Amino acid sequence: MKMTNWQITKEKIKNWGILPVDDVPKNVIDFLNSNISDIPNNASLAGQIKEEYKYEKWPEFVDEFILKQTNHPICRQWTEKNNVLSSNKYFYLKSLWVNLQRKHEFNPIHYHGGLFSFIVFLKIPYNLEDEDKVFPPRTENETGISACSRLAFLMQNYMGEIFPLELDVDKSFEGQMIMFPSKLQHLVYPFYTSDDYRITVSGNINFWVEKC
Predict the structure, then answer these.
(1) Phi, psi for residue 149 in degrees, rounded to 5
(2) Which CATH fold would you assign to the domain 5-209?
(3) Domain edges within the chain
């Protein structure tokens, strides 16, 4: 059986310290879909996206699901390597927002605040095959970039060269999540073949420091 793009992506991003999370629980997905506010969050974000809204409150089960991902070895390896945790610190979900991205809108290169960030994919309205017909992948040059609609992280190879780690986000990503270090720069290219929304929810995780 042919692997989906989500299955392929899971194996690819683990090698770069990005955590894939399968099958976000239905109660979390239902809350995120049903409680989109009308409180603009554009001033806090880099996106060239008109409709970006913040969640002001969320139930405890959302916190519990997202924060437990920080116990995964991929996340713990990052925190231990960078000496950001000790016994008097613990994580909390600092911010949560939704991007309702339309055709031609995009997220430029940016990074987040906090320690970890994440993306939950709620709706992908296009097919990659159609997107790649608009601007076909450039396979004859050294980059081989397939840019239309992709999510890309800027990584560094063993030669010190910066390159885009591109994720082929399609409908198989719906209901899935990725978590990554907040300072990891990334971007989202525009899509062209659907008049519907591409809906993703993002957030930042930080840590409290208790007073001694």
Answers:
(1) 70, 0
(2) Jelly Rolls (2.60.120)
(3) 5-209
